[in-house]
Amino acid sequence: MNPFVLAAEMLALQREQWRPSHVVRERQWRLLRSMLAHAYDTTPHYRSAFDARGITPADIRTPDDLTRLPILKKRDLRAPDGLFARGYKRESLHKSFSSGSTGEGATTYFDDRAWVIGRFLVKLRARLACGLRPWHNAALFQWIPNEPSFLRRRILRQLAFGVHEPLDQTTDSLVSFGPHALYGFPSYLTRLAPVAAGRVRPRFVFTSGELLTERVRETIASGFGAEVFDIYGCTEMKEIAWECPARSGYHVNADSVFVEILTQEEDGVPAGSIVVTSLVNRAMPLIRYLVGDSGSWIPEACSCGRGLPLMRPSLGRLADYFILPGGGEVSPYNVMDPVEALPGVAQFEIVQDRTDHALVRVVPSATFDEDTKREIVRGLAPVIPGMTITIEVVDEIRPEKSGKFRIVKNTAFSDS
Ligand SMILES: [Zn+2]
Predict the structure, then answer these.
(1) What 8-state DSSP symbol labels residue 352?
(2) Is residue 318's pLDDT more than 50?
(3) What's the predicted TM-score (pTM) here?
(4) Measured between alpha carbons, how far is 407 from 416 in angstroms, rounded to an integer?
(5) Fold of 1-316
């Protein structure tokens, strides 16, 4: 994107957040209707979805009318051909892969503008709002740290660290890097905080990906002596909503997404579920995408004065903690991590079905073999010391009654 267009997009985002909330909502609705028309005109999937219901985009006049359209689920993204808009070449699009909380991988494709807005500009707006400045260093904690690009290192001043590195080693690296901001999962940052306390002094900590309880927030804030801001997002939509310094809730990025919180059960999806429509991704329109979390609206205006709507996600990503035979808990994210990146695994769930036993159910992909099994055990065993591991190959993994997948379950300590 050319730098003048980029600057203009950023200025527009900066201005938009301060408009009165009814103006923000009206503009958001116009963008949504434009996206519906575009999807209907250019994608086989939405053309047939509208046709099957005997409606056209003109019939969607109010937000309530959206329930006439189907909910898009992750499995729909696994065969995405019908979702591509005419006129876009798949190989020229940006893509994001998500193994996701459902245990099923899928790739989302973005056109240039959607990518720049979702990946960089709305994030920049949110971080600026919290006090982060472009010259600040940021440390990112990731499952598999990617080799930082020139853009990340030099322009965004970011360095990535793996969450499996020894904590004292990471602390040493952080001391020499001197980050002003940390980005990571709450469960990781609560482990890092006591080790890095006093040596690493960021001004801001940004969390995402897991439920941030008040206790965890306090542990991270006091451990690092920094302010903690939580971010809500998903791979398919990028950042959806974020906390401003007033922390009255999470401001929805109304310029890039339209969020619905279902008021009643729809298509087996329970009330309270969050579904999101992208307002910017025209290459692969995603309309009413089921994120897999629940949430609620906050009707009050935020004291910061922004007109962006306020919500509170209650990360319903269903996952249990493992409880070790020797005592101690292991975060579900640490349990699923060694398994979810393996190419031989199409879908999986991990169950602590006895106090000292983990059952890994795997739907194999074409590349699954004995090595895959060995790698699962090799990766998982150190995470859950004292437990034996059994691998069971299955044809399918059924969702919970709620329609969600519980990717890490503990049936030994909780009946579910
Ligand atoms: Zn605010």
Answers:
(1) E
(2) no
(3) 0.77
(4) 12
(5) Rossmann fold (3.40.50)
